[in-house]
């Protein structure tokens, strides 16, 4: 008789590392337009530099945002 192995559920291998501009605005309690304006003037939002996607959207790195807000990882 074969011994049955417990079924192993897959674990997520992709951990989200970026926020959208709307998510960043919500987290910082500002309007998305404020973030876009500062980004267009300085290339960053309070020293947080996003990744610009081919579709012109911005991805903001979560680890840098957490340093800005003082949130623990």
Give a count of the beta strands, DSSP E runs of length 2 or more.
3
Give the number of helices.
3
The assigned structural class equals alpha+beta
Our Rg estimate from Cα atoms comes to 19 Å
Order of strands, main sheet, comes to 1-3-2
GO molecular function, one term: DNA binding
Protein name: DNA-binding protein
Keywords: DNA-binding
Brief sketch in words of this structure:
With 73 residues, this protein is α+β, with helices and mostly antiparallel strands. It has helices at 21-28, 32-42, 62-69, and strands at residues 18-19, 51-52, 58-61. α1 (21-28) packs across α2.
Task: Walk me through the structure.
The protein has 73 residues and is an alpha+beta fold. The chain has one domain. Helices cover 37% and strands 11% of the residues. It is built from three helices and three strands. Strands 1-3-2 form a three-stranded antiparallel beta sheet. A hairpin with a 5-residue loop joins β2 and β3. The model has no long low-confidence stretch (mean pLDDT 84). GO terms for molecular function: DNA binding. It comes from Paraburkholderia podalyriae.
């Amino acid at each position: 008789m074969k011994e049955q192995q417990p079924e192993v559920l897959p674990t997520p291998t992709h951990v989200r590392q970026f926020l959208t501009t709307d998510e960043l605005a919500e987290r910082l309690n500002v309007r998305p337009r404020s973030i876009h304006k500062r980004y267009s003037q300085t290339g960053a939002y309070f020293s947080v530099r996003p990744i610009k996607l081919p579709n012109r959207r911005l991805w903001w790195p979560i680890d840098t945002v957490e340093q800005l807000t003082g949130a623990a990882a």
